């Protein structure tokens, strides 16, 4: 997930990163069906179709502007898949570590350190590190330490959010965060975007918001259906037989 996110940002701008990562909700639906066996209503699938339409519109406008990177789009789609899988497997793995988010975060970071060593070896990055000019720079390592601390905190908060809500809620909040990042990036770099480019962002955000509203209504309906006890008597109907006799209800004069 970290690798695909960084590679996506390497080949595309921060402003397009939101559109490139917009398929997270769609992959969440697909992975929930394949892994958890959870079906999705046609209304939610329609919202996913809107998100996909916004994604392709954004890719088309990026191509029209001459700044499209096919490799960046591929990494963005892969990042969306990895984010959805990470949220689902985080929820499934938490019971195995006693619902401890800190322990799960520590295991994830340890696994990442071990897994990245062969990747660095095969990509030839060890040779680049030797000739890195800031390898012994105190300023560089201070920034790396701060980045590592914030990365650990982000992983902890992510696991915590998935624990107390759901993978879907985590992905939706990530979509909203990415939308804010898009606006900030365009303003920061003083980029000029076409109207259709902004429309693609609005379509993706609107589809995600509609998906959230649909799932919220479905969750409320399921909760009310499960909360209603079976065989309960309607409040406007009195039972035929009462445990109290008519004399018990009379008042003393």
Automatic annotation (TrEMBL):
It comes from Ascaris suum. The lineage of its organism: Eukaryota, Metazoa, Ecdysozoa, Nematoda, Chromadorea. GO terms for cellular component: membrane. Coiled coil: none annotated. The chain crosses the membrane at residues 15-35, 42-59, 65-89, 110-134, 140-160, 195-214. Residues 242-253 have a biased composition (Polar residues). It holds the Pfam family TPT. The keyword Membrane applies. This is GDP-fucose transporter.
């Amino acid at each position: 997930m970290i690798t695909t996110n960084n590679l996506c940002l390497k080949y595309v701008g921060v402003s397009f990163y939101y559109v490139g990562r917009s398929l997270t909700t769609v992959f969440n639906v697909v992975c929930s069906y394949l892994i958890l066996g959870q079906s999705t209503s046609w209304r939610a699938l329609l919202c996913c179709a809107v998100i996909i339409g916004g994604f392709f519109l954004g890719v088309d406008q990026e191509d029209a502007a001459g700044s499209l990177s096919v490799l960046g789009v591929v990494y963005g789609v892969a990042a969306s898949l990895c984010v959805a899988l990470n949220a689902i497997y985080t929820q499934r793995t938490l019971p195995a570590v006693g619902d401890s988010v800190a322990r799960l975060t520590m295991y994830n970071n340890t696994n990442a350190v071990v897994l990245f060593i062969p990747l660095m070896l095969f990509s030839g990055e060890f040779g680049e590190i030797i000739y890195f000019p800031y390898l012994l720079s105190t300023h560089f390592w201070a920034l790396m330490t701060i980045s590592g601390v914030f990365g650990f905190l982000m992983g902890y908060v992510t696991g915590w959010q998935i624990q107390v809500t759901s993978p879907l809620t985590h992905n939706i909040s990530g979509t909203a965060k990415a939308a804010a990042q898009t606006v900030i990036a365009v303003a920061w770099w003083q980029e000029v975007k076409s109207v259709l480019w902004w429309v693609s962002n609005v379509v993706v955000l609107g589809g995600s918001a509609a998906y959230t509203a649909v799932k919220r209504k479905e969750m409320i309906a399921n909760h009310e259906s499960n909360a209603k006890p079976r065989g309960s008597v309607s409040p406007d109907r009195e039972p035929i037989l009462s445990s109290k006799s008519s004399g018990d209800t009379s008042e003393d004069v």
